[in-house]
Amino acid sequence: KQEVTQIPAALSVPEGENLVLNCSFTDSAIYNLQWFRQDPGKGLTSLLLIQSSQREQTSGRLNASLDKSSGRSTLYIAASQPGDSATYLCAVRYGGSQGNLIFGKGTKLSVKP
Amino acid sequence: EAGVTQFPSHSVIEKGQTVTLRCDPISGHDNLYWYRRVMGKEIKFLLHFVKESKQDESGMPNNRFLAERTGGTYSTLKVQPAELEDSGVYFCASSQSGIGYTFGSGTRLTVV
């Protein structure tokens, strides 16, 4: 069964800290992996997408890595800010561009001023 | 460019009633997806349209759920009759290439 697990479920850090969110998946034959952010009552905002042939993607203070062989991805957030507070979701796609996403339950991040 | 629009944003209905959710994808996006998150669980796939055709409906929970996409534009998801376990947030997403998704804000459905 294809499953995605995110650890930790919740994380609280002081402003300015660098932090890492973890995502693991049971089947390494992925097509791509996507990190999303969800704010309360809002939709999902795509942060980074990593194709199966890539090792990492960067956008501003965010860096996502992918290790297919070990079934893991990490989202690194540098110099965290209160505005980063949200739920971060990892989603894996199998079966090519027509496959659907399999989500983890998310990590709820709180950055304290 | 306008994003993916869903309405209503919230719906509260009684068990046994019918509810129809609507999704307007980004113009020109052939791929349209429905996902659902029930309380305490992860977001799960319901179905996928390519234009007006159902590409994959393996995630639809049962025959009380009916999805349509008229003319390959907007899509509706009807629940009839609604049950308590149908409560959750229903998300719609669209994609042009099938690679990256754009999600809507979701419809929060509460069945009482």
Q: Can you describe what's shown?
A:
The complex is a heterodimer of chains A (113) and B (112). Chain A is mainly β. Chain A has no helices and 11 strands. In chain B, 0% of the residues lie in helices and 50% in strands. The N and C termini of chain B lie far apart (37 Å). In chain B, strands 2, 4, 5, 6, 9, 10 and 11 form a 7-stranded mixed beta sheet that branches. In chain B, strands 1-3-8-7 form a 4-stranded antiparallel beta sheet, with no helix packed on it. The mean pLDDT of chain B is 93. Chain B contains no helices and 11 strands. At the A-B interface, strand 4, strand 5 and strand 10 of A face strand 5 and strand 10 of B.
N-to-C span of chain A: 41 Å
Find the biggest chain interface. Answer: A-B, 22 and 26 residues
Number of helices of chain A: 0
Strand content of chain B: over 45%
- The tally of helices of chain B reads 0
**What's the mean pLDDT score of chain B?**
93
Q: Give, in order, the helices and strands of chain B.
A: EEEEEEEEEEE
Shape of chain A: globular
Number of strands of chain A: 11
What is the helical fraction of chain A, as a range of percent?
under 10%
SS-based class of chain A: mainly beta
